[in-house]
Write a structure and sequence with these properties.
By secondary structure, this protein is mainly alpha-helical. It has 1 helix and no strands.
């Protein structure tokens, strides 16, 4: 009969037995530190219709039009 559900303690016991058998057979376990992926940096859009470097001013107006 197929078992659909096993309790955590039963799985833990089976895993422990399997690991012990693996080590007895000459296997070795090595803990490898995971490497983090580099953080992604935000990149500005470079396409037509995008006014880059507006410094917070509304698009379509240049800074020289204000205060002078």
């Amino acid at each position: 009969m197929n078992e659909i559900y096993k309790s955590k303690s039963q799985l833990r016991e089976e895993t422990k037995d399997a690991v012990e058998a693996f080590l007895r057979a000459g296997g070795s376990i090595e803990v490898v530190k995971s490497r983090k992926a580099p953080k992604q940096k935000m990149r500005a859009k470079t396409s037509k219709g995008f006014a880059g470097g507006s410094s917070g001013f509304a698009q379509g107006y240049s800074k020289s039009n204000f205060g002078g």
